[in-house]
Amino acid sequence: MAMKPTLQRPGGLPASASTSVVTPIMPSVVYASDTPDSLDDQYEGRSSGYTYAREGHPNADVLGQRIDLLEGCEDGVVTGSGMAAVSAVLLGLTKAGDHVVGGNQLYGRSLRMMTEDLPRLGIATSLADPTDVASVRAALRPETKMVVIEVVSNPTLRIADIDGIAELCREAGVLLVVDNTFTTPAAIKPFEHGADIVIHSITKLLAGHSDVTLGWVGAKDPELTQRMRVFAVTTGMTPSPYECWLAERGLMTFQLRFDRAQATAERLGAHLAGRQGVTRVLYPTRPDHPDAARAQGLLKGQGGNMLSFEIEGGRAAANAFAHAADGIAFAPTLGDVGTTLSHPASSSHRALTPEGRSAIGISEGFFRVSVGLEEPEALMATFDAGLEAAGQI
Ligand SMILES: *Cc1c(COP(=O)(O)O)cnc(C)c1O
User: Fold this and answer.
1) Where are the domains positioned within the chain?
2) Which atom of ligand 1 is nearest to the CA of 333?
3) How confident is the model at residue 4 (pLDDT cuts 50, 70, 90)?
4) Class in CATH terms, 254-391
5) Any idea which fold 36-251 has?
6) How much distance in Å is there from the Cα of 175 to the middle of ligand 1?
7) What's the rounded Cα separation, in Å, for the pair 176 and 191?
């Protein structure tokens, strides 16, 4: 039978009286309009709809709305990576002559943007200690545009004085930007503490499976969000529909994963603190944490899934530990369903001198753990095996 000639593009999905319970993936780069007049309506806001995927697509919007709800914000922008979200803030809202203050223990790439890229574009930057509001105050200048902090620092888990800094920023008329990747809205909602802009690397705990790279940024002031959205579209920070779909799927179990990983992290911290050869355990809800009182006030018992500890015996012991802790990925990421171990002296903080590292408390025996969803007993047994091997050095 001769095939009826058809146009290249099919006319849409088969009709169904029932509806899909799962968000469809919409990979279309373009969206067809009826007439030039209907396109005018869309561009001029009389009707709504998609035009071209770099400008926006349904999977990004569905994901964005879910994160908006978690953070308590409207109309946040989903970007192709966490660093794209950082860029949308630092590059999309500043101009030559402005000044930006950053926390001195920001995520490595954010620090690099502060120290390398912004100055190249004529935007001056300073770093300050976000655990000490006086240090941030001393860094402010008349032309300061924003202060960028993370609530819990990597990898030493120091707690920023977000309330004090928010008050300072309000008085000075400066935007407070909080990267909430590490803490997540399960532990703290920065908008409730006076943040003007919140950033996420969705890549980490929100998506949670180490299989997507995405970011999100939202502002309290819709005008700021709109400026970042336009900048993100112009500079091509577009997220992939497939990745947005995967992240939406991951996000459905975010709270469950967070609760489980946090409970295990707390237990693992207590376990490690009692072991021979362990010189220090850092976890925000431990009473011996250097910012214990602030952690208690801000995080309300939510210590999160990140834990750091130090063993004696230097690099040789660290090698023996990482080698013997079989089954735990020695990999510099966080927020995965599987526990990951990182060694800042040889990875995130390798560019610092040993003195620079020791000034912030990072030695050759220092490890950071992103606790995953393993059975806690199995995980503790693996850490014990690592400690035993390290102790034989
Ligand atoms: C990973 C991370 C980023 C960057 O996110 P990507 O998705 O890897 O680009 C930014 N800030 C923090 C705190 C992070 O941990």
Assistant:
1) 36-251, 254-391
2) 1
3) low
4) alpha beta
5) Aspartate Aminotransferase; domain 2 (3.40.640)
6) 20
7) 10
